[in-house]
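Appendix B. One record, verbatim.
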Amino acid sequence: MKHIFGNLKKYWYFVVLIVVLLVVQAYCDLSLPDYTSNIIDVGIVNGGVNHEVPEYITGESYNKIKMFMNEEELSKWQDAYENIESDNTYRLKNTDNKSWEKLDNEFGNVVAVYYMMSSQKNSQFKNMDTSNVKNKTPEEKKAMADKLTEFGVDPKSDTLMYDLRKVFEKKLSGLGDSTISSYAKSFAKKEYKACGMDVDKLQTDYMLKTGAKMISMTLLMVMAAILVGFFASKVAAGVGRDLREKIFTKVMKFSNAELDKFSTASLITRSTNDVQQIQMVTVMLLRMVLYAPILALGGVINVVNYGSGMEWTIVVAVAAVICIIAVLMVVAMPKFNIMQKLVDKVNLVSREILTGLSVIRAFSREKKEEERFEEANSNLTKVMLFTNRAMSFMMPALMIVMNGVSVLIIWVAAKKIDQGVMEVGAMTAFITYSMMIIMGFLMLTMVSIMLPRAAVAANRINEVLTTEITIKDKENAVTAKADRAVIKFNHVNFKYPDGEENILEDIDFEAKPGETIAIIGSTGSGKSTLAKLIPRFFDVTEGSITLDGTDIRDISVETLRSQIGYVPQTGILFSGDINSNIAYGAPGIDEKGIEEAAEIAQATEFINDKPEKYDSPISQGGTNVSGGQKQRLSIARAIARNPKIYIFDDSFSALDFKTDTELRKALKPKTKDATVFIVAQRVSTILHADKILVLEDGKLVGKGTHKELVKSCETYMQIAKSQLSEAEFQASLEGKED
């Protein structure tokens, strides 16, 4: 996981911006349930009346409510209102939301008690106020006194109405806060109507105003979501680009030892499929993983603020979700690592089949290769089916949890609504917030499907990026080019990094400018390995190789290789045209230089036969030219560089004898001041080499000219006699063979 998050350091400013936008999105998302609740409870149930204390109140009600207050409350009540039409109507002085809510808390119960008493037609307490006592008959006064006594109120008390209010407040408390609030708001609505206000318009205005706020919040949320998606995609694309660049740059520095550690198929998978996994999960991280906790935390805060007493239902739901996720991760996580290796295998088999298609057809091995591909593909399919089936169980399970929680909340809330401690809108909002909290965990779960696979991919990419490069420059490496290019092997031993035995042992010789050093030996004797030590494709295990007396390990790799023209055993061409392939190692070469190199390499014959000549296209890998043509273009590429050191690693084997002879003749003047190494299988190719090195089982068993080795080296003599006729052999000793 740290590797995944580590990729985001470079884009921290985008991450901060995304977090800010996600907070905005979450704020809007979390506001909508409140608006829905208000539309139901305030807009529909209470007719658009949002406060318990009315903004406008008739003088009669204003004065009667005063009788239910103590002196402190009476002072606040009188300070809150002002008379606007003599004694008929009063209006709140301050209607800002904070002040109004404070008045609701202080006088909501008083207003509810008064409304309950005054709204009942047959209530014995409807006209029970001190201003009305004198007008009652003795019988009415006695009945009222008896009733007050029954309620525990002293009829002779100076605070008769206040005491009566306390009795009713106690009775009302059993109905629940939402019922008390509803009584008070009903009173406010009645007062608005009595004051001549259009209560239907009041309700309509409230609904339109709240609806407009919801639309505004929705639009803002959509805009934030779009921007989050844009920036998350931008960051993910940047992360993918950076990773591919890092992998490519790293692989370009790999020596053959590192390339042998990772297969070509695996490196391709790591730089494509694995990077894509990281890119996809980065988008998910920025869009979902960051959003989920913000949304869930906001939902928890809102649920707690409602104080409904149903928070335990959320705990049950979250615990169920966590259990489901944990089980799925334990089951599926190990399979993701296996899956990536199987992707490598399918990639490997596919590449081998496609590149070796002609050989497969020639040997009628189509059926066998189909079976091999089927096996690799089936293994991958089985693992993917297992993980997908395991993960497909997740969504139904989570939907059961979400719907089960909804039913549980409705069941519990129904009782609370019946008791008057919760309103229908509050229940709706609670369900919505609960779903948001669960959805937060659901988002994390959706990411968890990709996260294990992405974690595996990140580790695989990190393996490449953290691989120690064995061939690298030392501090203060020599960057000056050699004057003469004298190559000297000083008792060199070499074995591959994972090998136990030396491939080359005690190789000791010197090659000077103007000399052609030929290397010959049986298959597997180490010829190509020796050649690869010169450009530092591998470093020697013991001994040293020097260039003009300087150990090549002390020379900058770029400087060393810039002085070498290397032609590998198998000609490798790149997509483009003939011009670009010949000029590959010498970008600044002119057209004349390209033509000269092609002429020396004996390539002009087939180039001039093509309609577009040097502009003729070359497909990837040079599959649209023959093996001999590919080899000649590879040789021309090395010649065009005009290096001080030439290495021909069995480069003439694909050429016919005539072309081989003509090429070597044309090459000799070009390389007269250069040091030339030729790895060869054919004795005829190296007859006139200045020095021939004979290798057997990695050991130097012969060193000298052709004539010297025939006399002194049994191994060389056997090779020569096996390839040359008796006449050719005798002619070579007499110097008649060219």
